[in-house]
Amino acid sequence: MDIIHQLRGGFQSQHSVIDKKNKEIQGLKLRIMQLERMLIKRDMPEAILPEKIIYDAVNYFYECPFEAMCTNSRLRLITFPRQINMYFMCKYSQYSLSKIGSVYGNRHYSTVIHSRDCIEGYISIDNKFKKRMEDIDSMINTQLREVVYK
Fold first, then answer.
1. Which domain range does residue 37 map to?
2. Residue 79: left (phi > 0), alpha (psi -120 to 50), or beta?
3. Which of 102, 107, 56, 110 is nearest to 81 (CA)?
């Protein structure tokens, strides 16, 4: 019986080591994504990046840090602006759904589809929200026109 308990204890300690390593790997993957995003932004003029233009317009109304949108948080204060950003990325960028998901914290493409559908649903039932989305839309259009004419 002692041998079984020792083996079980050894297995549990190995399991906790593996969990720690997986968390470290996830942290490293997140850091790599952040560094890649920084390199892309460094190499391209900021105004040309659609996520920057869209984020600035949405942030004017919702004030959610971009880094928070890239986390796994399910707080409504973070998820709602993230969904709005994904909605406008689908509308204005040439990015694939997978690429849009990767911009916002390596989300699956189905999450992007869900975000787009949710926002379209809110627009169809809430006139106040629809007006806010039209305001954000006009801000994005203004910024995009400025980029085109520069």
1. 1-43
2. alpha
3. 56
